Amino acid sequence: MPRVILIDDEPPARRGLKRMLAVFDDIEVIGEAGTIDQARDLIVTLRPDAVFLDIELSSGKGFEIVTDLSPETAVIVVTAYSLYATDAFDVAALDFLVKPVDPDRLETAINRLRERLAPPPLAAAASARPPARILLKSMMSSVMVPVSSITLLQAEADFTRVHLDSDQTYLAGGLLGKFEADLPSPPFCRLSRSLIVNLEHIHTVEWQAGGRSLLRFGADSRDFPLGRSATKRLRQLLDD
Length: 240
Known about the structure:
The longest helix is centred in the middle third of the chain and has 15 residues. Strands 2-1-3-6-7 form a five-stranded parallel β-sheet, with helices on both faces. The chain folds into two domains: 115 residues, 3-Layer(aba) Sandwich (Rossmann fold), CATH 3.40.50; 108 residues, CATH 2.40.50.1020. It contains eight helices and 17 strands. 30% of the residues lie in helices and 33% in strands. By secondary structure, it is of the alpha/beta class.
């Protein structure tokens, strides 16, 4: 049963959304928050499967909360402002709902949440083997690349930017979660909602002040900055 938290600084909006969610027997609303601090406390305490997140809060922008979430926690944005759609995809939101919420769109979001949380079939999970190569499709072309050549993957709206050890990149169709399901873990590990890295290709990690860091890969001359939550996750992986 998906366990969700509602984050909105308007109590009537929370009550309305809670009533709409009540028609879904398998959705359990386990908490509500009106401020960023309240939301952070609830997330740490309750560890929800998903949050329904308003953006314009009196205490700040709802996107501030996303960095505190684990990659496994789904974000469903609920806002009166459609201009935040691009920002929502940048944080790999599962869905984007515009107030007043349409019941059919809410049902679509719930179905996406169910699909995300559904365990893989046992037979498929037992027989699955990591692919040697993976197909990257774009509007202009399709290319097969060795999985071992991928250094990192970044979410870009409805697409995924795939970086290779040859310093090439491809903008492939599909959300980051689709690629996460197809790649072996380890060495591929999700550090944040928008980034997956191949630990075997990391050449240097430069730990910086404020809990941040810079990643460098062997043949790639670029630096890849990591935020605090991604840096914390990387430290945990490297220490294991």
